[in-house]
Inverse folding.
């Protein structure tokens, strides 16, 4: 068979703009939902990069631990796997969601700080170059994944971890609330977008309005001067990891609302790469850039899937990343956490 | 510093409270809209099950149900005698990115071996694990050792098509019967190996039968075929699409990846089409979230899938969304006891191919119980085997494909 | 890349241009200084010095028997060394391919200092090129009966094509992305690795998608009655000389060829340019090194070596499928390079050996030196151990097991000979004193700081003339590899 025969028989890559037109608003709404999750995870990458000039490759595993954290919290509250707990009433549902989110935040935040202490601090003390940090992060990523894969099920008697995805516990039943240009907006979508918005605003205010935030910005801008001015660099770094972890934990709960079956040891990896791409897209080290990049990536990914075919989703994300880096190496909003106020 | 800290905490608390409030709004409106939240939650997954409805032949025509026997019990009658050290080998991905499938098979086989050893004091079988990581190259390292171990009289595996292709010659020359629980590439059985037996359905039978059943009996005029990227999914989707003919709608067909958990775009494509049904060619690990997301998006057309999805785990993971799903399988109804035995032994719920691992190990153990002591005897036993398993009827033709041509149609209700 | 840390620099001020041929009395005695600052006087360094001082024919004379010994390893069947749960010959075959990959990746990461997390993409392209051209499942099959190429020669004939296409892919990836630095480059290459795998998965009309391509060609050599498909076929098992051993030998040939190629490049202008780029790209650019061109060279050469390895892989397993080219492989490849000592060709080969051999060593083993162990359980946790090993290694020995040392790239041998001669004359002076007093200063000699070289120069580990240059080199290393 010759080349053109193959190509004529069936186009290798589909191209269907009409489908995009038909589904535009629905895809946008849904893309924003995913984008909100990307954005929250991306903040973790961007803060750490801004302060340490380090790609925290293991942040995806922090997110994964967050998913397990909120799941374990729900189990501890007496929910059972594969239970649709839609009958709790509004107040109780809210309460349980809140507790689960805190559970996820505690686990992810704790893990992030722990990771910093165990893996990164010894390297910083030795003044290691960034390649060494990156390789350590990859190692840590392996360790956390394999921990959840093999060790956690042994520790919990098979309740958590292992090779298969955890059976979902669902608290909110998706119901269509209203329509925007024919696109359905469900309560889950609303919860995710509004929660992410509030968390993003809170983080932005924390970075830009509080003393701690000023410390973070100072260290990001000029670590030496910041230290001279009495800012404890170590404490700021720990705080940075903590915030990133907390947001990843929150994102984990929002993600599982949308994708209840996503709780698995390998579930963080690709999402982490996407979130990192989002951070780079917006300009890594730039808080608002991460948020913008996350939403943009979520939406573009959805458009791309419909235009080229669903199997090209990850390719769309990676190509977008490469193209943006080629033409605007510092991302859409530019680098630097220190100048992120503008 | 202190004050700032307090203010920060306050800020976080505020953010949290606001989040909760928003969540409250979401749930509130949900309650307002439906007013039947309580009742919907009552239909939990507890009372959903995969129930057999009809049996069809290769042309999709209903055929009267023949009474099929109970699945073979690996324990046998408890009187088996065998040489000490007799063992069966298991080769597949036990570590690495594809570990889940290999471990599912291994754990399934362990349930059978455990039952056998507990019942037969005179014959203790060990199961030897050989890890291939799902990599054909690693399989070539492991295969000579399996063949060289004289105590191994049968092999469960190799798990994937790639490693099976790379090592088939080795096992064929050594005369070691290899029963694969998961290698689905249609070409594997065309190599002329006398020792290879495929423990799952031949897509060439199931595909056309289900496709014709959907068009002729169920009357679907437009079906969206969604496939995963495993060779099982790709092969099945080809057969289904060909069998559906004009009824297969290309504009809403989609391809997802094994391991995907969110299917937003595929869901959107289907919801904006006016298809009568969705056919999913793949495994329940993706089918469950997919079915759920379809229902969440308000798509309520029938969800049809095949034996990769026909597993109690599909119902457990998809919950209420699995209700009404139509699942085909060349197999009889599976009992629930397996799942509890599996979980008790392995500390986790059974997964894709666990049942196949159990069934194939059972066949080997039945052979040992019937007096088979070496590879040649086992090969002879398996070649002539005809029995009921948990997943399906096992009887192979001379290429090593399952020969049962009758397909069961199940419904989740 | 360099581990010469600010802390170390503080502790040991970089010397100014010291007058040559003057002894340095202030040298601390070896063994009492912190590891990072210890002069290079261990057994390993004596061995290195000895080796570097050998004439080329003598190096060959010592090297050849060693290579022969390695080649015969799978046949000798040494008791503890031979794997239990897996076939040692086949393990060595995989080691051969990993070693090739490590050499190729080392050019990119170790020598030019470009972190590539998508190297598996090149491996995949090499394997897929061979498979697409020789598998009967592919529409572009050129082998008989549909094509014109005889099965006997298909593998060898397609190999250069595979290498060329992989090299081209290195060019295609490199030219747009090599403007990026450090971490950005790492992530873009990671994306590239994934894109290659996804292309293989999605373009199923050509690549077979998830069903893969089977019956890939392999060399038909030594066809006999018992082995109708030759010694390289998967059917060749049982005897000591199984197919794994043959594939190992084949990859050994390619390893030696690429070692010669890379070794010569290293000593040429290209190699010096790579080192300059690795140490400080901006400085190199200012000094007139066309950095982009040489980075591209590193990418292309690294890629084509990866392509050779991929082609060997496809031939051995005769089946390619996208799942075998996961990101996790990229990480393992990088592990091999970092573990062995990036920049050191022999080090990365050792790293490859450890990555491949260690899990197999434990598989199926029930006792070790009489101590009962559960080898399978240990092997199950291998990724956990790899992760822990990476983290621990990065904290305590970031330069790898066999770190690369500062080495004279040009006219080196004469100097090493001189250094050795003086060392022999002054038995109690120690190598440092010998260095300090002996070697002639030479303006033509270039020496460079190296990745993971343990500490800056002031401890005087080199002839004085080059030491000057070495010190300058170290001055610039801190800014390297951002």
């Amino acid at each position: 068979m010759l080349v053109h025969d193959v190509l004529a028989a069936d186009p290798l890559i589909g191209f269907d703009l009409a489908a995009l037109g038909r589904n535009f608003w629905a895809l946008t709404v849904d893309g924003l939902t995913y984008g909100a999750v990307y954005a929250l995870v991306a903040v973790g990458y961007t803060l750490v990069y801004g302060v340490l000039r380090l790609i925290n490759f293991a942040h995806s595993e922090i997110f994964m631990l967050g998913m397990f954290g909120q799941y374990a919290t729900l189990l501890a509250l007496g929910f059972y796997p594969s239970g649709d707990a839609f009958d709790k009433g509004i107040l109780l549902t809210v309460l349980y969601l809140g507790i689960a989110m805190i559970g996820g935040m505690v686990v992810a935040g704790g893990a992030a700080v722990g990771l910093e202490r165990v893996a990164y601090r010894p390297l910083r003390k030795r003044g290691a170059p960034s390649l060494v940090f990156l390789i350590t992060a990859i190692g840590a990523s392996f360790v956390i994944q394999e921990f959840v894969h093999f060790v956690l099920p042994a520790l919990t008697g098979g309740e958590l971890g292992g090779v298969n995805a955890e059976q979902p516990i669902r608290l909110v039943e998706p119901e269509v609330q209203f329509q925007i240009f024919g696109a359905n907006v469900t309560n889950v979508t609303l919860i995710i977008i509004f929660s992410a918005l509030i968390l993003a605003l809170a983080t932005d205010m924390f970075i830009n309005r509080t003393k701690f935030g000023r410390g973070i910005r100072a260290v990001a801008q000029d670590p030496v001067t910041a230290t001279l001015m009495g800012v404890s660099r170590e404490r700021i770094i720990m705080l940075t990891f903590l915030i990133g972890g907390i947001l990843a934990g929150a994102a984990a709960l929002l993600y599982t609302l949308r994708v209840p079956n996503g709780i698995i040891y390998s579930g963080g990896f690709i999402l982490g790469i996407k979130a990192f791409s989002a951070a780079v897209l917006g300009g890594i080290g730039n808080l608002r850039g991460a948020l913008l990049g996350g939403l943009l990536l979520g939406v573009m990914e959805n458009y791309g899937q419909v235009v080229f075919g669903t199997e090209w989703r990850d390719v769309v994300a990676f190509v977008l990343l490469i193209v943006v880096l080629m033409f605007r190496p510092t991302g859409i909003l530019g680098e630097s956490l220190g100048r992120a106020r503008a | 510093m202190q004050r700032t800290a307090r203010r920060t905490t306050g800020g976080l608390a505020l953010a949290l409270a606001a989040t909760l409030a928003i969540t409250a709004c979401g749930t509130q409106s949900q309650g307002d809209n439906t007013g039947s939240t309580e009742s919907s939650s009552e239909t939990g997954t507890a009372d959903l099950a995969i129930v057999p409805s009809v049996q069809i032949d290769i042309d999709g025509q209903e055929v009267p149900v023949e009474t099929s026997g109970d699945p073979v019990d690996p324990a046998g009658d408890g009187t088996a005698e065998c040489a000490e050290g007799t063992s069966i080998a298991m080769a597949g991905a036990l570590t690495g990115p594809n570990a889940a499938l290999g471990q599912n098979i291994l754990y399934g086989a362990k349930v059978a071996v455990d039952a056998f050893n507990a019942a037969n004091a005179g014959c203790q079988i060990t199961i030897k694990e050989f890890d291939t990581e799902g990599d054909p190259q690693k399989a070539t390292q492991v295969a000579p050792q399996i063949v060289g171990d004289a105590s191994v009289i049968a092999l469960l595996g190799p798990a994937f098509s790639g490693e099976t292709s790379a090592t088939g010659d080795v096992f064929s020359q050594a005369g070691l019967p290899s029963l694969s629980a998961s290698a689905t590439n249609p070409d594997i059985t065309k190599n002329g190996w006398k020792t290879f037996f495929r423990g799952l359905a031949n897509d060439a039978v199931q595909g056309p039968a289900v496709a014709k059943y959907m068009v002729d009996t169920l009357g679907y005029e437009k079906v969206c075929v969604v496939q995963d990227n495993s060779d099982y999914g790709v092969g099945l989707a080809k057969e289904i699409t060909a069998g559906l003919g004009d009824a297969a709608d290309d504009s809403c067909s989609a391809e997802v990846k094994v391991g995907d958990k969110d299917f937003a775009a595929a869901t959107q494509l289907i919801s904006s089409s006016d298809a009568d049904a969705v056919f999913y060619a793949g495994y329940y690990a993706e089918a469950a979230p997919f079915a759920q997301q379809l229902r969440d998006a308000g798509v309520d057309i029938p969800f049809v899938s095949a034996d990769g999805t026909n597993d109690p785990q599909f119902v457990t993971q998809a919950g209420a969304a699995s209700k009404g799903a139509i699942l085909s399988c060349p197999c009889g109804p599976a009992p629930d006891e397996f799942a509890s035995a599996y979980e008790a032994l392995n500390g986790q719920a059974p997964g894709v191919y666990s049942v196949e691992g159990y069934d194939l190990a059972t066949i080997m153990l039945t052979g040992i119980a019937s007096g088979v002591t070496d590879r040649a005897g086992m090969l002879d036993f398996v070649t002539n085997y005809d029995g009921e398993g948990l997943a399906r009827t096992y009887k192979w033709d001379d290429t090593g494909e399952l020969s049962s041509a009758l397909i069961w149609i199940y419904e989740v209700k | 890349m360099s581990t010469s840390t600010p802390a170390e620099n503080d502790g040991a001020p970089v010397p100014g241009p010291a007058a040559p041929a003057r002894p340095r009395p202030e040298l601390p005695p070896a063994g009492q200084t912190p590891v990072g600052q210890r002069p290079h006087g261990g057994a390993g360094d004596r061995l290195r010095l000895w080796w570097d001082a050998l004439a080329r024919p003598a190096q060959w004379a010592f090297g050849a028997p060693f290579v022969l010994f390695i080649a015969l390893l799978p046949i000798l069947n040494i008791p503890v060394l031979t794997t239990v749960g897996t076939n040692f010959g086949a393990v060595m075959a995989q080691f051969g391919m990993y070693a090739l990959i490590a050499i190729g990746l080392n050019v990119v990461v170790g020598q030019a200092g470009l972190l590539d997390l998508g190297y598996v993409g090149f491996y995949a392209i090499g394997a897929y090129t061979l498979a697409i051209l020789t598998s009967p499942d592919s529409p572009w099959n050129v082998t008989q009966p549909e094509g014109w190429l005889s099965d006997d020669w298909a593998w060898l004939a397609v190999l250069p094509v595979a290498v060329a296409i992989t090299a081209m892919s290195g060019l295609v990836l490199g030219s747009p992305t090599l403007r990026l630095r450090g971490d950005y480059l790492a992530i873009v290459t990671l994306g590239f690795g994934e894109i290659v795998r996804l292309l293989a998965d999605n373009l199923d009309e050509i690549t077979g998608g998830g069903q893969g391509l089977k019956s890939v060609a392999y060399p038909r050599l030594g066809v006999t009655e018992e082995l109708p498909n030759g010694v390289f076929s998967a059917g060749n098992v049982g005897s000591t000389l199984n197919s794994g051993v043959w594939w190992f030998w084949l990859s050994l040939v390619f390893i030696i060829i690429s070692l010669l190629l890379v070794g010569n490049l290293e000593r040429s202008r290209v190699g010096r340019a790579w080192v300059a780029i690795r140490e400080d790209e901006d400085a190199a650019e200012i000094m007139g090194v066309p950095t982009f061109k040489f980075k591209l060279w590193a990418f292309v050469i690294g890629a084509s070596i990866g392509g050779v390895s991929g082609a060997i892989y496809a031939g051995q397993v005769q089946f390619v499928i996208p799942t075998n080219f996961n990101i996790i492989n990229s990480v393992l490849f990088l592990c091999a390079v970092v573990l062995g000592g990036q920049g050191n060709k022999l080090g990365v080969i050792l790293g490859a050996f450890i990555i491949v051999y260690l899990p197999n060593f434990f598989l199926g083993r029930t006792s070790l030196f009489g101590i009962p162990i559960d080898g399978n359980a240990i092997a199950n946790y291998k990724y956990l151990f790899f992760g822990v090993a990476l983290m621990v290694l990065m904290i305590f020995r970031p330069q790898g097991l066999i770190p690369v040392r500062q080495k004279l790239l040009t006219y080196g041998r004469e100097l090493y000979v001189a250094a050795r001669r003086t060392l022999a004359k002054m038995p109690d002076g120690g190598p440092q004193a010998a260095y300090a007093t002996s070697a002639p200063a030479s303006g033509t000699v270039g020496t460079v700081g190296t990745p993971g070289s343990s500490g800056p120069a002031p401890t005087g580990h080199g002839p004085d003339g080059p030491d000057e240059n070495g010190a300058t080199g170290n001055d610039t290393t801190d800014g390297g590899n951002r």
